[in-house]
């Protein structure tokens, strides 16, 4: 019986340590660049990829610019062709580290973390720090974050004639549930040593 219990404990310890990557390819990123009294400028991308390496606290988020959807096709066209030039710069990438992150401390109570890293957008990069809230949910770890993006930091040019209709700072919201990569494939193997 002692050997059986020891085997179960060893497996449990191994499975916790083996959970070194959490990921999703369905992160949702909303942005809004609306200005009062003018047409609403909003878009959503539901195909964001996030990877969290628990051993290093590394956080990576990748979005393809063309995956943003708008309520008007003409807005999407202008966004891709004139502002973000998505044929030339197809992705937005954020790479950073989660400060004081320990996957074993994540509970069903939301906890605030800081993520420091570099945002690559429109051929430019900028060091940024964002707040992220994380908690355990049945599917994995839920992450939410709100952060501003100043368009001039990334050399996104807005024609003078419409500059007053677009916010200089874009409000961005991220929501995702990252799942343990490979956790479902692990199986308990019980070996009777008697």
From TrEMBL:
This is YceI family protein. Keywords: Signal. The keyword Cell membrane does not apply. SUPFAM superfamilies: YceI-like (SSF101874). InterPro entries: Lipid/polyisoprenoid-bd_YceI, TTHA0802/YceI-like_sf. The keyword NADP does not apply. It comes from Flavobacterium hydrocarbonoxydans. Residues 1-18 form the signal peptide. Residues 55-175 form the Lipid/polyisoprenoid-binding YceI-like domain. It comes from the Bacteria.
């Amino acid at each position: 019986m002692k050997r059986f219990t020891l085997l179960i404990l060893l497996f449990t310890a191994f499975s916790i340590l083996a959970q070194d990557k959490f990921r999703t390819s369905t992160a949702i990123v909303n942005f809004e660049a609306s200005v009062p009294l003018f047409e609403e400028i909003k878009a959503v991308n539901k195909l964001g990829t996030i990877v969290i390496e628990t051993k290093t606290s590394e956080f990576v988020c990748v979005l393809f610019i063309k995956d943003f959807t708008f309520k008007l096709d003409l807005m999407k066209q202008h966004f891709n062709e004139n502002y973000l030039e998505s044929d030339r710069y197809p992705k937005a990438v954020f790479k950073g580290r989660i400060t004081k992150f320990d996957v074993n401390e994540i509970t069903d109570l939301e906890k605030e973390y800081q993520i420091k890293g570099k945002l690559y957008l429109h051929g430019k990069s900028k060091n940024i720090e964002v707040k992220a809230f994380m908690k355990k949910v049945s599917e994995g770890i839920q992450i939410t974050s709100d952060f501003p993006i100043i368009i001039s930091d990334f050399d996104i040019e807005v024609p003078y004639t419409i500059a007053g209709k677009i916010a200089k700072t874009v409000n961005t919201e991220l929501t995702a549930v990252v799942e343990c990569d490979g956790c479902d494939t692990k199986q308990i193997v019980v070996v009777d040593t008697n």
